[in-house]
Amino acid sequence: MTIALIGLLLLAASDETHGTTTQVIYVNNRSGDDRFNGRSPERQPNGSGPLKSINAAIRQSSHGGRIVVVPTDSPYDEQVVVHGARLHGFSSQPLVIDGGGATISGRRSFHPDSWDRIAPGSFVRHGSRDSSGTLIIDGKLQEPVPNPINGAKPAINPGEHAFWFGRYYLRLEPETDISKLDIDECRRGAGMAIIHASHVTVRNFAFDGFGFDGAQVYGPAEAVIFKDCKFLDNADSGLTVRNDASVVLDNCQIAGNGASGLNVLNFSDVDLADSAFEENLVNRSVDATSRIKDLGGEFDAKAAASAGSPKKPRAKPSAPAATSPPAKAAPVKPKASSLFD
């Protein structure tokens, strides 16, 4: 009995000091299976091997563990959630999610034959339950024309589309061959949400084509680091950080997002190191309670994780105003017509 009690105490002490052993979980959306234990990057004769989804790896991982995602010829079709009540890291041993260059995508491809032609250059097709209304046409994000508040049919110009009562309406130049276009929709949701989880490092992922944000961090949370990541062509923001969260972007690319590249609000801090913003509607959006700081040069991720990304004190306003992603200015365009003209 005494020996067993000593063993339990030693195990508890090891957990309290977080030890040095890191549990590694592997993910492969081609060869993996969520019934496996994830302890091997390849299928084994005993039936073990990589998991198929990142969310399954999060369910099996431990605090301060490491998840290794294998990039394949197919993007990861999921919305990843890391909740601090279930999984987090430590200052001495952060939770690491390594994408190895994998893409987490919200895109759904529309085959040209799925569109019905209703007039020369005008096409319609049904959306789905998780349609956001935003399209990506030949690699370019295109927001839908706003619907009139009175419920009337929206008017669209050539090169525009609308999402009205669950259907996409697309207007092209009459001579345009729709079969020559690559058309994807952005599904609702975000590629990754980190919620109340501190000391998390997300490395070498692309978050692409989501109807909301590429990734989101909800505090309280500290020492959340995105390294070598890309936030591309998401309908709202590339990354949103809110509710007393501290985040670092290290060598990241934020491009082509529909509202803002980076949206920081509600007493949050973001440090930027060697990160580039391109062709977002607004590159950086920050409210009066929050801060974005450009560190420049090389960033010491290990030192930041240990330090916990300390914040500068700020006085909280008595009633902070709610913020939202900046709205696009509506340009005046000629030749607008009803969808059914």
TrEMBL record:
Domain of life of the organism encoding this protein: Bacteria
Region (Disordered): 30-51, 303-341
Cross-referenced Gene3D superfamilies: Single-stranded right-handed beta-helix, Pectin lyase-like
Domain (Right handed beta helix): residue spans on this chain: 177-281
InterPro entries: Beta_helix (IPR039448), PbH1 (IPR006626), Pectin_lyas_fold (IPR012334), Pectin_lyase_fold/virulence (IPR011050)
SMART domains in the cross-refs: PbH1
Regions that span the bilayer: none
Start-end of Basic and acidic residues biased regions: 31-42
Name of the protein described by the UniProt record: Right handed beta helix domain-containing protein
Provenance organism: Kolteria novifilia
